[in-house]
Design a protein that fits this description.
Elements (H helix, E strand, L loop, with lengths): L17 H12 L9 H10 L6 E6 L3 E2 L2 E2 L3 E11 L4 E4 L14 E6 H4 L3 E2 L21 E2 L2 H5 L5 E11 L2 E9 L6 E7 L6 H18 L7 E7 L3 H9 L7 E7 L9 E3 L7 H10 L6 E3 L8 H4 L8 E5 L21 H20 L4 E2 L27 H10 L6 H8 L3 H13 L3 E2 L3
Parallel strand pairs: 7-8, 11-12, 11-13, 13-16, 14-15
Antiparallel strand pairs: 1-10, 2-3, 4-5, 4-9, 6-9, 10-12, 14-16, 17-18
Helix pairs in contact: 1-5, 1-9, 7-9, 10-12, 11-12
């Protein structure tokens, strides 16, 4: 039988250990204390730079970005609460979640009654440390397990937060994989959360690994990978690139891509952008996958999809943020993310890139009646090529819909078949001179 390699396109081959590679990178990022500014972001970009050659940007404190202003830079050395008997109650060195992110410096001795309003816990999850921030209101605070708070006797406590807020800069990194055209696919992940594995060490590690894999692939589109702090970082990038955002044809925000929940996609504000259709097709063939309509709550798709931009940018995640108990707590740790789930997320992104790269509109050159497939050795394909991802139904659908009005993605929507099957069928039919047109 003629050998037909349906995977014979330029798509990125998947290494069986890719999930482990992503996990290992997430594990290296996990301990770093990140925030919307500061050395934690720089250290994170240093680690990611081992995978991909990032361009780094520093935007000074006070820079106006639309309705926002780049804040003072925050860095922290240490923080702890010590009881009267000298015992340490909480220590930033044990978990960077113990301090409210962006806490102003503080030093003093307080009775529990005065300290209590500065302590955040989760009574419903008494063993977990919550994640709290105070970026734009000067405040200080600690986060701890509710059980630990309940054990604190009345009395005096020594409190010390050795942090610094100063004029500095906001840091973000980006990498552009140049394709044959200037049209862009934007992939963006927030880099501002401290030790939370799924949200978003998983997204950062996945994007860096994907960028590295893409380096060896010749693509039609250019791929921009953005590692920026949530909200203010995305706004800063948009304000510095306002004149070129019209080049973005597709975009995805990634967060929480490593847990065992089923994959989920939140549509762009447009709702019918190519990326919305491509994600719907890829996830339509994943067990339990969810498609969610756009809402102005979530991650940086809020900025990309604000009415002044309305970019075709959706959001890919697994368990929907805010709906799982580990979300924004110390339970979002390295046990909560799994190499095989990261691998599944990687494969989904790879499949979506294949749709973006390989969609085209074929024209059937033998449209009157069905062409005689047996004479061309294609009748065997009705069974024989199945192992290469080509089924009889995909051949018949492509022939039937190749009227010059249907791209392969619209054929996939109409037939309910996976895009990759139709793409493989179209390649085979093209090789046998039955289709005109090309990628
Ligand atoms: Zn978050």
């Amino acid at each position: 039988m003629e050998h037909v390699d349906a995977a014979g396109t330029d798509s990125t081959p998947l290494d069986a250990s890719i999930g482990q590679e992503v996990y290992d990178l997430a594990e290296r990022l996990f301990p770093i204390c990140r925030s919307i500014t500061g050395d934690g972001v720089r250290q994170t970009l240093d680690v990611l730079s081992g995978h991909v050659n990032l361009q780094r940007h520093e935007v000074p404190t006070g820079t106006q970005v639309f309705d926002w202003t780049v804040p003072k830079e925050w860095n922290i050395q240490s923080a702890r609460i010590t009881a009267a008997d000298g015992r340490t109650v909480v220590d930033f060195a044990d978990s960077n979640l113990h301090v409210v992110n962006y806490s102003v410096p503080f030093k003093g001795i307080l009775p529990l009654s005065e300290l209590r309003p500065h302590i955040h816990t989760l009574p419903d999850q008494p063993k977990a440390i919550p994640y709290r921030t105070s970026y734009y209101a000067p405040a200080w605070g600690f986060c701890m397990a509710h059980d630990r708070l309940m054990e604190m006797p009345d009395g005096l406590y020594q409190v010390e937060i050795d942090a610094e807020l100063k004029d500095g800069s906001l840091t973000y990194g980006e990498y552009l994989h140049r394709g044959k055209t200037e049209r862009e696919f934007l992939l963006s992940a927030h880099i501002c959360h401290p030790s939370l594995a799924n949200d978003n060490c998983s997204g950062l590690a996945l994007l860096a690994t994907l960028a590295k894999a893409l380096m060896t692939r010749t693509t039609k589109y250019s791929y921009r990978f953005l590692f920026a702090p949530g909200t203010i970082g995305a706004l800063t990038w948009l304000s510095r690139n306002e004149d070129r955002v019209h080049l973005i044809d597709h975009g995805l925000v990634l967060s929480c891509v490593g847990d065992a929940g089923c994959p989920a996609y939140k549509r762009s504000r447009r709702g019918d952008a190519f990326i919305d259709r491509a994600m719907a097709n890829v996830l339509g063939h994943e067990d339990g996958a969810k498609l969610i309509d756009f809402s102005p709550y979530g991650y940086d798709e809020r900025q990309y999809c604000s009415p002044g931009f309305n970019l075709p940018v959706g959001m890919f995640q697994r368990s929907v943020h805010g709906t799982f108990p580990e979300y924004h707590t110390s339970a979002d740790n390295l046990d909560f993310i799994k190499p095989d789930c990261l691998e599944s997320s990687f494969r989904i992104l790879n499949d979506v890139i294949d749709v973006v790269e390989e969609d085209w509109t074929p024209l059937n050159l033998c449209p009157k009646g069905e062409p005689q497939l047996g004479r061309r050795g294609l009748y065997a394909a009705l069974g024989g090529y199945k192992s290469f991802g080509i089924t009889s139904m995909s051949l018949l659908w492509v022939l039937n819909l190749a009227d010059g009005q249907h791209s392969l993605l619209s054929m996939a929507e109409r037939s309910g078949l996976p895009f990759k099957e139709l793409a493989a069928a179209a390649r085979l039919l093209s090789e046998h001179g039955l289709l005109a047109g090309s990628l």
